[in-house]
Amino acid sequence: MVTKIKFGTDGWRARVAEEYTFENVRRCAQGFAAYMLAQGHRGQTVIVGHDKRYRGEDFAAAAAEVLAGNGLNVLLTDGATPTPVISYAVVAKKAVGAVNITASHNPPTDNGFKVRDATGGAIDPAGLKKIEALIPDGIEDVKIKKLADAKADGSVVTFDAAIDYIAHLDDLIDLQPIKDAGLKIVVDAMWGNGAGWFTRLLSGGETEVIEIHAERNPIFPEMKRPEPIPPNVNVGLQAAKDHKADIFIVNDGDADRVGFGDENGEFIDQLRAYALLAYYLLEVRGERGAIVKTLSTTTMLNKLGKIYDVPVYETGVGFKYIAPKFTETDAMIGGEESGGYAFKGNVPERDGILAGLYMLDMLVRTGKKPSELLSTLFDLVGGEHYYDRIDTPFEGDKQEKIDLVMAANPKTIGGLKVTELVTIDGYQFRLEDGGWLLIRFSGTEPVLRVYCETMHGDKVDAILQDGLKIAGIK
Fold this sequence. Notes:
Helix content is 36%, strand content 22%. It has helices spanning 22-38, 56-69, 83-92, 125-134, 147-153, 162-172, 176-180, 197-202, 234-242, 270-284, 300-308, 319-329, 352-366, 370-381, 398-408, 460-470, and strands at 11-15, 45-50, 73-77, 97-101, 110-116, 156-159, 184-188, 208-212, 247-251, 258-261, 267-268, 291-294, 312-315, 333-335, 341-343, 386-393, 412-413, 416-422, 427-431, 436-441, 447-454. The strands form four sheets. A six-stranded mixed β-sheet has the order 1-5-4-2-3-6, sandwiched between helices. A six-stranded antiparallel β-sheet has the order 16-21-20-19-18-17.
């Protein structure tokens, strides 16, 4: 039976040895190759990389064989490489795109096939649909050049993508003050591609980097999945408390996302982290430019946009929406609720390494602790903002759930008056305090996601529970 491969936000993810097989990876690579050829890129270069999941290097080699078999030249990373480093390699090597074998923050059972365009950023939804349509139904329609032959004739060349990326960082940030600051930093690599990076970049001074979960272990012990949110970060937060660290930094499995903990070992949620990074660029570095945000991230960004007189653009959820808008507006920063942030001067792609370095730079430049920076931010935007999210499986027809949401027309949610319904991506009910409830249905599995942000900390749970009721879950 033919597996119908459906691309999601960044590409395709599936369970290893069930849908995610070498045959299906090769079919995906054939679809991407056909997409590249249709754009006139025969003979041009594509980057191929991978993460530390089970047999990642072998799946990457399989993809490279197909791209080479279709007349493309391939630069294949010489080991597991962070997604932002792979994305920057597209620009540095003047490539026309990239294939990245990674399932990012998915459970250990999964792997994935991410695709990137010539900017190093996510391919837009229309492009993903074209690639999907070009994926052949069977392996007999896949063109393959064996890796040994491809290496022999130079159509596949292995390379170290770190060299260009590290040189590029020098254009974005001065690392010496961070090295000299004497900070104690606990970094959780979540058994993934971020391992060793902060140590490599910040060694040679008074600052101490302590890494945990830095080995390769595809089953991701001590966490449900390598996603930088609680409870997956709890072991790391405790380690930061035990070491009396100034800050905790955690990257997801492919190091394009990031999470933070303060000097007390308390998690800084992704919405607060995004607002802090925007504040850093605007206030500490004095930069100006557009802010691109998804519906599911913080309204503190809208408030910062008004305070600093910069435009704020809202998109659907995912970098397939953020990256095109980021490029179109020459944005200063773009990001989403899952802890992925892109920055001006870099590729339009999440970069968990650069985001971590920027957060450290803010500590050094301001002389403030993370909790003090949050207090400064809240004073600026009118008070503390609270966020939470529930993901829950559901049974029955998704359209019936959608019809329930559309027909609900609630006057209040969590005791707060509803002021507007926005349907750019899912169903966002905006509330009188400037907060919101967002209800979204997964496009690939029977999962309902309910998110909220509010300035009333005591109403978070009530808002989320009302969201579940609106969707007919409770």
